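User: Run a structure prediction on this.
Assistant: Running it now.
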Amino acid sequence: MPISADHVIEVFNNATEENHLCSKRQNQVVYLPNEGEVWMTGDMHDHRRNFDKLIKAADLANNPQRHIVLHELIHGDRIDANGCDGSWETLYKAAELKCDYPSQVHFLLANHDLAQIHGEGIMKGGMSVCEAFNAGLKRDFTDRYTSVSVAISEFLLSLPLAIRTGNALFFCHSLPTDNDVANFDFTVFDRALTGADYRRRTGPVYQLIWGRNITPAAVDKFADALGVSIIITGHQPQDTGFAINGSRHLIVASDHNQGVFVQIDLSETYDMPKLARQIKKYAALQL
């Protein structure tokens, strides 16, 4: 049964408010407690089976000490014959989940989110994913398209940049390139954001969520500046589901059948070999 535009707008607005009011959030960072567990995902890109498996397995209602981290939910491969992408539905389900479990569901701002907000042309298979997303909204909400689009943009802008744990782990969508690490503005995590922070190439938000191919040596510099031991990101496609980039950087992907997520005990300390043993495949989960 179709979901009304009014209901979708209400859910996104409520989830936006929950993101802003999160008691664990300080400026652009969510600080998780020193006990319980967190399940860190990679880019989801509207892989609905993996998303549904994750939510069922997490069983947040019966596991109040469990947290999940979601990012890059939009812009998948489900494009209809008219070039319409319906990935707003997965984003909507995640927003609903945030409303239902506000202290357990957390997000990270990703580059596809920023591209959708700004209308930048990310191309996939010769098609602009942002245009396909807009076409999907127009198909499903017709004359209410603009209002739904605004609610989605406000929700995406409310997403934090990073998540820190008491056991010295740091989660973000990606990391700046080696060239950008040296002059990266680390104050971006500890203050309100401005338009300049999102500026293409020069803004620290842009650098953080668009950077690729950082070397282990630059990871060390970034992690040391933050005082963390290991960083987990997504952003870079991984055919086998993950990549270990040196001793302090784990890259995970959740957008295909070999995708993975990471189950982390917030009371444990981790080095990379121990953390790698916590990588779990969606293929092993049941619906």
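Residues 5-284 form a domain with the Purple Acid Phosphatase; chain A, domain 2 fold (CATH 3.60.21.10).
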